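ok so for the tutorial part 2 we go from a plain amino acid sequence to predicted structure tokens. step 1 is just haveing the sequence, like this:
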Amino acid sequence: MEYKPTRQDSPISVSDRYLDDFIGIQLLEENAKEQEGRNPSGKLSAGKLAWPLQWQVLNRLGVPLKPIDEYVIRKFSRGKHCEAWFLSKIPGVIAQQTFREYRGVIGYEDSLVDTKDWNNPVGIIPVEIKSVANAKFKRILDQGADRSHCLQNCLYALANNTEKFAIAYVAADDYRVKVFIYNTIDFKEQVDAIIDRYDKQGLVVPVFVPEEKWQGDPKYSSYPDWSELNEDQIKEKLISFQNEKQNSIAGSSKKD
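step 2 — the prediction. this is what the tokens look like for a chain of 256 residues:
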């Protein structure tokens, strides 16, 4: 008679959460320190060019973003590790994490790369690196690079005065790579229009109008508490925020 193991025959294990909890606490603390060390410059950043105008202005005013949870921080950490690994493997890197500015919009370019050995060499261009899960990687193969990533790296191309730029996607699950090369001129008009709109808006917070469908979902919103407000409600909330900010500054001064 053939022996078939039963559940009673299975080895007994004990689940232990210590390491998972320890890493989670570390990641939360590191993220908190990183956020504390950031001082808003008042300038629009390249990575926020595809944001709705309301988010851009709120960020300019120093209104805090919606707090991110531990799960999202873990995903960001995995993405950073993946992108750092990929950057270490790219041949022809001339510069990395270089500060760039175009028409007052700022950002740090992932890499400037000499493409002389590529299948389609296009000279020295900025290459933006993005890590994604396998599901998104599959969509990118069908649809091309995200608009927000193209706008971001187009700005770096304009700052470098290069005619082309590239977006390199890395599948974080298995390290597959897909690179898209674009013409800078194809996105320049959009970038300039966004900067013109931002400069014209100044410090006046507008009502929320999404640039892309996903931005209208509260789950993914950077400022969900502001998205449903009308102009009068926005003014009231902004006054409340500014008063709280002044009180916080006054309280810190007294402690010092």
